[in-house]
Protein backbone atom coordinates (compact mmCIF):
# COMPACT_ATOMS: atom_id res chain seq x y z
CA UNK A 1 0.00 0.00 0.00
CA UNK A 2 1.45 3.36 -0.98
CA UNK A 3 1.99 6.20 1.44
CA UNK A 4 -0.26 9.23 1.33
CA UNK A 5 0.87 11.52 -1.48
CA UNK A 6 2.02 15.09 -0.83
CA UNK A 7 -0.23 15.98 -3.77
CA UNK A 8 -3.46 14.69 -2.19
CA UNK A 9 -6.51 16.63 -3.36
CA UNK A 10 -4.84 17.65 -6.62
CA UNK A 11 -6.46 15.85 -9.56
CA UNK A 12 -5.21 18.25 -12.25
CA UNK A 13 -2.68 20.93 -13.16
CA UNK A 14 -0.78 22.38 -16.12
CA UNK A 15 2.84 22.12 -17.19
CA UNK A 16 3.87 25.75 -17.03
CA UNK A 17 3.79 27.67 -20.29
CA UNK A 18 0.80 29.67 -21.48
CA UNK A 19 0.02 31.49 -24.73
CA UNK A 20 0.16 35.24 -25.16
CA UNK A 21 2.19 37.84 -23.34
CA UNK A 22 -0.12 39.25 -20.68
CA UNK A 23 1.12 38.21 -17.24
CA UNK A 24 -2.07 39.26 -15.44
CA UNK A 25 -4.31 37.36 -17.84
CA UNK A 26 -2.16 34.23 -17.50
CA UNK A 27 -2.20 34.45 -13.70
CA UNK A 28 -5.96 34.98 -13.72
CA UNK A 29 -6.40 31.91 -15.92
CA UNK A 30 -4.23 29.49 -13.93
CA UNK A 31 -5.66 30.57 -10.59
CA UNK A 32 -9.26 30.70 -11.84
CA UNK A 33 -9.02 27.20 -13.31
CA UNK A 34 -8.49 25.83 -9.79
CA UNK A 35 -10.61 28.27 -7.80
CA UNK A 36 -12.42 25.43 -6.03
CA UNK A 37 -9.19 24.10 -4.57
CA UNK A 38 -9.33 20.94 -6.67
CA UNK A 39 -6.13 21.46 -8.58
CA UNK A 40 -2.70 23.05 -8.49
CA UNK A 41 -2.23 26.58 -9.88
CA UNK A 42 1.25 27.55 -11.04
CA UNK A 43 3.55 30.39 -11.99
CA UNK A 44 2.93 30.73 -15.71
CA UNK A 45 5.66 31.07 -18.34
CA UNK A 46 4.91 33.24 -21.38
CA UNK A 47 7.56 32.40 -24.01
CA UNK A 48 5.75 34.38 -26.73
CA UNK A 49 7.25 37.52 -25.16
CA UNK A 50 10.65 36.50 -26.51
CA UNK A 51 14.12 35.58 -25.17
CA UNK A 52 14.20 35.59 -21.42
CA UNK A 53 10.59 34.46 -21.10
CA UNK A 54 11.36 31.04 -22.62
CA UNK A 55 12.01 28.10 -20.28
CA UNK A 56 15.79 28.18 -20.79
CA UNK A 57 16.02 31.94 -20.44
CA UNK A 58 13.92 31.97 -17.30
CA UNK A 59 16.22 29.43 -15.66
CA UNK A 60 19.31 31.33 -16.79
CA UNK A 61 17.86 34.31 -14.95
CA UNK A 62 17.73 32.24 -11.76
CA UNK A 63 21.42 31.28 -11.81
CA UNK A 64 23.76 32.70 -9.17
CA UNK A 65 27.10 34.14 -10.33
CA UNK A 66 26.51 32.63 -13.76
CA UNK A 67 24.98 34.57 -16.64
CA UNK A 68 23.85 34.08 -20.21
CA UNK A 69 23.14 35.89 -23.44
CA UNK A 70 21.33 34.97 -26.64
CA UNK A 71 23.23 33.92 -29.77
CA UNK A 72 21.64 32.83 -33.08
CA UNK A 73 22.22 29.24 -31.93
CA UNK A 74 20.64 29.74 -28.49
CA UNK A 75 21.67 30.75 -24.98
CA UNK A 76 25.40 31.02 -24.22
CA UNK A 77 27.28 31.56 -20.95
CA UNK A 78 28.51 35.13 -20.29
CA UNK A 79 31.11 36.70 -17.99
CA UNK A 80 28.66 39.27 -16.63
CA UNK A 81 24.90 39.95 -16.60
CA UNK A 82 23.83 41.64 -19.81
CA UNK A 83 20.60 42.75 -21.42
CA UNK A 84 19.25 39.22 -21.93
CA UNK A 85 19.81 38.14 -18.33
CA UNK A 86 18.26 41.35 -17.04
CA UNK A 87 15.27 40.85 -19.32
CA UNK A 88 14.77 37.29 -18.03
CA UNK A 89 14.80 38.52 -14.43
CA UNK A 90 12.42 41.36 -15.25
CA UNK A 91 9.90 39.01 -16.89
CA UNK A 92 10.05 36.74 -13.86
CA UNK A 93 9.41 39.66 -11.52
CA UNK A 94 6.39 40.71 -13.61
CA UNK A 95 4.98 37.18 -13.52
CA UNK A 96 5.45 36.95 -9.74
CA UNK A 97 3.69 40.29 -9.26
CA UNK A 98 0.71 39.03 -11.28
CA UNK A 99 0.51 35.71 -9.48
CA UNK A 100 0.73 37.43 -6.10
CA UNK A 101 -2.17 39.67 -7.08
CA UNK A 102 -4.45 36.73 -7.91
CA UNK A 103 -3.47 34.50 -4.97
CA UNK A 104 -4.32 36.85 -2.11
CA UNK A 105 -5.49 34.64 0.76
CA UNK A 106 -4.80 31.45 -1.22
CA UNK A 107 -3.96 28.31 0.72
CA UNK A 108 -2.93 25.11 -0.99
CA UNK A 109 -0.46 23.71 -3.49
CA UNK A 110 1.25 26.19 -5.81
CA UNK A 111 3.76 25.10 -8.45
CA UNK A 112 6.79 26.89 -9.86
CA UNK A 113 8.89 25.53 -12.72
CA UNK A 114 12.57 25.63 -13.67
CA UNK A 115 14.65 23.73 -16.19
CA UNK A 116 16.58 20.92 -14.52
CA UNK A 117 20.41 20.79 -14.49
CA UNK A 118 20.78 18.26 -17.31
CA UNK A 119 18.42 19.81 -19.82
CA UNK A 120 20.02 23.16 -18.99
CA UNK A 121 23.50 21.68 -19.53
CA UNK A 122 22.38 20.30 -22.89
CA UNK A 123 20.92 23.64 -23.99
CA UNK A 124 23.41 26.19 -22.63
CA UNK A 125 26.53 26.81 -24.69
CA UNK A 126 30.05 27.36 -23.44
CA UNK A 127 31.95 30.30 -24.89
CA UNK A 128 33.30 28.13 -27.71
CA UNK A 129 29.83 27.07 -28.79
CA UNK A 130 29.74 23.52 -27.44
CA UNK A 131 27.11 22.57 -24.88
CA UNK A 132 28.03 22.73 -21.21
CA UNK A 133 27.29 19.00 -21.25
CA UNK A 134 30.74 18.51 -22.80
CA UNK A 135 32.47 19.73 -19.62
CA UNK A 136 31.92 17.73 -16.42
CA UNK A 137 33.24 20.57 -14.26
CA UNK A 138 30.94 23.08 -15.93
CA UNK A 139 27.99 20.76 -15.29
CA UNK A 140 28.82 20.60 -11.59
CA UNK A 141 29.11 24.39 -11.39
CA UNK A 142 25.83 24.80 -13.25
CA UNK A 143 23.97 22.45 -10.89
CA UNK A 144 25.36 24.30 -7.87
CA UNK A 145 24.43 27.70 -9.28
CA UNK A 146 20.92 26.52 -10.17
CA UNK A 147 20.35 25.03 -6.71
CA UNK A 148 21.42 28.26 -5.02
CA UNK A 149 19.23 30.33 -7.31
CA UNK A 150 16.23 28.11 -6.73
CA UNK A 151 16.59 28.38 -2.96
CA UNK A 152 16.37 32.18 -3.26
CA UNK A 153 13.50 31.99 -5.78
CA UNK A 154 11.43 29.63 -3.63
CA UNK A 155 12.04 31.80 -0.58
CA UNK A 156 10.65 34.81 -2.47
CA UNK A 157 7.59 32.86 -3.66
CA UNK A 158 6.87 31.71 -0.09
CA UNK A 159 7.25 35.28 1.17
CA UNK A 160 4.85 36.65 -1.43
CA UNK A 161 2.30 33.83 -1.01
CA UNK A 162 2.60 32.77 2.63
CA UNK A 163 -0.42 30.47 2.54
CA UNK A 164 0.88 28.37 -0.34
CA UNK A 165 2.57 24.98 -0.16
CA UNK A 166 5.12 25.59 -2.91
CA UNK A 167 5.95 22.72 -5.26
CA UNK A 168 9.18 22.81 -7.28
CA UNK A 169 8.92 21.32 -10.77
CA UNK A 170 12.13 20.61 -12.68
CA UNK A 171 11.67 20.32 -16.44
CA UNK A 172 14.00 17.65 -17.82
CA UNK A 173 12.92 16.87 -21.41
CA UNK A 174 16.55 16.18 -22.42
CA UNK A 175 17.32 13.84 -19.52
CA UNK A 176 16.82 10.62 -21.50
CA UNK A 177 19.03 11.90 -24.32
CA UNK A 178 21.74 12.87 -21.81
CA UNK A 179 21.71 9.37 -20.28
CA UNK A 180 21.75 7.61 -23.65
CA UNK A 181 24.32 9.84 -25.37
CA UNK A 182 21.88 11.28 -27.89
CA UNK A 183 22.56 15.00 -27.43
CA UNK A 184 24.18 16.34 -30.62
CA UNK A 185 27.28 18.51 -30.61
CA UNK A 186 27.42 22.01 -32.05
CA UNK A 187 28.47 20.66 -35.47
CA UNK A 188 25.66 18.14 -35.49
CA UNK A 189 28.03 15.42 -36.74
CA UNK A 190 28.56 13.72 -33.40
CA UNK A 191 26.91 13.28 -30.03
CA UNK A 192 28.17 13.88 -26.52
CA UNK A 193 29.10 10.86 -24.45
CA UNK A 194 26.44 9.47 -22.11
CA UNK A 195 26.64 10.86 -18.58
CA UNK A 196 27.03 8.28 -15.83
CA UNK A 197 23.69 7.58 -14.11
CA UNK A 198 25.13 8.14 -10.64
CA UNK A 199 26.45 11.56 -11.69
CA UNK A 200 23.05 12.44 -13.15
CA UNK A 201 21.25 11.27 -10.02
CA UNK A 202 23.60 13.17 -7.71
CA UNK A 203 23.13 16.49 -9.52
CA UNK A 204 19.37 16.07 -9.59
CA UNK A 205 19.34 15.25 -5.88
CA UNK A 206 21.30 18.43 -5.08
CA UNK A 207 18.98 20.63 -7.12
CA UNK A 208 15.78 19.03 -5.82
CA UNK A 209 17.09 19.60 -2.29
CA UNK A 210 16.72 23.34 -2.95
CA UNK A 211 13.02 22.87 -2.15
CA UNK A 212 13.98 22.33 1.50
CA UNK A 213 13.57 19.43 3.88
CA UNK A 214 9.77 19.76 3.93
CA UNK A 215 9.46 20.91 0.32
CA UNK A 216 7.59 19.05 -2.42
CA UNK A 217 9.24 18.28 -5.74
CA UNK A 218 8.24 17.10 -9.19
CA UNK A 219 10.26 16.24 -12.31
CA UNK A 220 8.60 16.66 -15.70
CA UNK A 221 9.63 15.19 -19.05
CA UNK A 222 7.78 15.07 -22.35
CA UNK A 223 10.29 12.57 -23.81
CA UNK A 224 10.04 8.78 -24.13
CA UNK A 225 11.81 6.39 -21.72
CA UNK A 226 11.74 8.64 -18.66
CA UNK A 227 14.01 7.09 -15.96
CA UNK A 228 11.33 6.92 -13.27
CA UNK A 229 13.39 4.81 -10.84
CA UNK A 230 16.36 7.19 -11.07
CA UNK A 231 14.13 10.19 -10.39
CA UNK A 232 12.65 8.47 -7.36
CA UNK A 233 16.13 7.78 -5.96
CA UNK A 234 17.08 11.41 -6.56
CA UNK A 235 14.25 12.46 -4.26
CA UNK A 236 11.42 13.51 -6.58
CA UNK A 237 8.02 13.28 -4.87
CA UNK A 238 6.30 13.22 -8.26
CA UNK A 239 7.14 12.35 -11.86
CA UNK A 240 5.34 13.89 -14.84
CA UNK A 241 5.13 11.91 -18.09
CA UNK A 242 3.41 12.00 -21.46
CA UNK A 243 0.98 9.08 -21.19
CA UNK A 244 0.93 8.53 -24.96
CA UNK A 245 4.67 7.69 -24.93
CA UNK A 246 4.53 4.98 -22.25
CA UNK A 247 5.31 1.42 -23.36
CA UNK A 248 4.47 -1.93 -21.76
CA UNK A 249 8.06 -2.47 -20.61
CA UNK A 250 7.77 0.68 -18.47
CA UNK A 251 4.63 -0.47 -16.65
CA UNK A 252 6.51 -2.35 -13.92
CA UNK A 253 8.53 0.76 -13.03
CA UNK A 254 5.33 2.81 -13.03
CA UNK A 255 3.62 0.37 -10.69
CA UNK A 256 6.60 0.25 -8.32
CA UNK A 257 6.76 4.05 -8.25
CA UNK A 258 3.09 4.43 -7.38
CA UNK A 259 3.20 1.72 -4.71
CA UNK A 260 6.31 3.39 -3.29
CA UNK A 261 4.47 6.70 -2.83
CA UNK A 262 5.59 8.58 -5.95
CA UNK A 263 2.83 10.71 -7.43
CA UNK A 264 2.41 10.37 -11.18
CA UNK A 265 1.36 13.27 -13.38
CA UNK A 266 0.17 11.94 -16.73
CA UNK A 267 -0.21 14.06 -19.84
CA UNK A 268 -3.51 12.97 -21.34
CA UNK A 269 -5.42 16.17 -22.19
CA UNK A 270 -4.69 17.47 -25.73
CA UNK A 271 -2.92 20.81 -25.64
CA UNK A 272 -3.29 21.79 -29.32
CA UNK A 273 -6.14 23.52 -31.09
CA UNK A 274 -8.73 21.00 -32.25
CA UNK A 275 -10.11 21.14 -35.76
CA UNK A 276 -13.60 21.43 -34.32
CA UNK A 277 -12.53 24.40 -32.18
CA UNK A 278 -14.28 22.73 -29.24
CA UNK A 279 -13.04 21.39 -25.93
CA UNK A 280 -11.44 17.95 -25.96
CA UNK A 281 -13.39 14.97 -24.66
CA UNK A 282 -12.13 14.60 -21.06
CA UNK A 283 -13.67 11.15 -20.64
CA UNK A 284 -11.83 9.86 -23.69
CA UNK A 285 -8.63 11.53 -22.51
CA UNK A 286 -8.42 9.55 -19.25
CA UNK A 287 -9.88 6.25 -20.46
CA UNK A 288 -6.42 4.82 -21.17
CA UNK A 289 -5.20 5.83 -17.72
CA UNK A 290 -8.07 3.98 -16.05
CA UNK A 291 -7.26 0.91 -18.15
CA UNK A 292 -3.59 1.03 -17.11
CA UNK A 293 -4.50 1.48 -13.45
CA UNK A 294 -6.76 -1.58 -13.56
CA UNK A 295 -4.02 -3.60 -15.28
CA UNK A 296 -1.55 -2.63 -12.55
CA UNK A 297 -4.07 -3.48 -9.82
CA UNK A 298 -4.25 0.13 -8.66
CA UNK A 299 -7.91 0.87 -9.40
CA UNK A 300 -9.97 1.65 -6.31
CA UNK A 301 -13.01 -0.19 -7.65
CA UNK A 302 -15.19 2.88 -7.03
CA UNK A 303 -15.23 5.34 -9.92
CA UNK A 304 -16.53 8.04 -7.56
CA UNK A 305 -13.64 7.76 -5.12
CA UNK A 306 -10.11 8.92 -5.88
CA UNK A 307 -7.42 6.92 -4.13
CA UNK A 308 -4.41 8.89 -3.03
CA UNK A 309 -2.29 7.05 -5.60
CA UNK A 310 -4.42 8.04 -8.58
CA UNK A 311 -2.51 10.09 -11.17
CA UNK A 312 -2.85 13.82 -11.62
CA UNK A 313 -3.90 14.68 -15.17
CA UNK A 314 -2.32 17.46 -17.19
CA UNK A 315 -2.03 18.59 -20.83
CA UNK A 316 0.15 16.35 -23.03
CA UNK A 317 2.38 19.28 -23.92
CA UNK A 318 2.95 22.93 -23.21
CA UNK A 319 0.16 25.22 -24.33
CA UNK A 320 2.29 28.20 -25.32
CA UNK A 321 1.24 27.90 -28.98
CA UNK A 322 -2.44 27.36 -28.26
CA UNK A 323 -4.77 30.30 -28.83
CA UNK A 324 -5.50 31.97 -25.48
CA UNK A 325 -9.19 31.06 -25.38
CA UNK A 326 -8.21 27.36 -25.68
CA UNK A 327 -5.64 27.47 -22.88
CA UNK A 328 -7.95 26.07 -20.18
CA UNK A 329 -7.90 22.28 -20.77
CA UNK A 330 -6.67 21.20 -17.35
CA UNK A 331 -9.77 21.17 -15.21
CA UNK A 332 -12.25 19.07 -17.25
CA UNK A 333 -9.80 16.17 -17.32
CA UNK A 334 -9.38 16.48 -13.57
CA UNK A 335 -13.13 16.24 -13.05
CA UNK A 336 -13.31 12.99 -14.97
CA UNK A 337 -10.30 11.61 -13.08
CA UNK A 338 -12.36 12.16 -9.92
CA UNK A 339 -15.25 10.28 -11.50
CA UNK A 340 -17.41 13.35 -12.19
CA UNK A 341 -19.47 13.25 -15.40
Layout of strands and helices, then pairs:
Layout: H1 23-32, H2 55-62, E1 67-71, E2 74-78, H3 83-102, E3 108-115, H4 117-123, H5 136-160, E4 164-171, H6 175-180, H7 197-208, E5 216-220, H8 228-234, E6 238-242, H9 251-259, E7 263-269, H10 282-295, E8 312-315, H11 330-337
Parallel strand pairs: 3-4, 4-5, 5-6, 6-7, 7-8
Antiparallel strand pairs: 1-2
Helix pairs in contact: 1-3, 2-3, 4-5, 5-7, 7-8, 10-11
Descriptive overview:
There is one protein chain. The chain is an alpha/beta fold and 341 residues long. It has one domain: Alpha-Beta Barrel (TIM Barrel). Helix content is 37%, strand content 14%. It contains 11 helices and 8 strands. Strand 7, helix 10 and strand 8 (312-315) form a beta-alpha-beta unit. The two termini are 28 Å apart. The relative contact order is 0.15.
How much strand?
5-15%
Query: How would you classify the helix and strand content by structural class?
Result: alpha/beta
Strand neighbour order, sheet with most strands: 3-4-5-6-7-8
Q: What is the fold-level CATH name, i.e. the topology? A: TIM Barrel
Alpha-carbon distance between the two ends: 28 Å
- Rg over CA atoms, rounded to whole Å, is 19 Å
Order of helices and strands: HHEEHEHHEHHEHEHEHEH
Largest sheet: 6 strands, parallel
CATH architecture: Alpha-Beta Barrel
Q: What shape does the CA trace take?
A: globular
Q: Kindly state the number of beta strands.
A: 8
Provide the low-confidence segments as ranges: 274-280, 302-308, 319-327, 329-341
Number of separate structural domains: 1
- In DSSP terms (H or I, runs of 4 or more residues), the helix count works out at 11
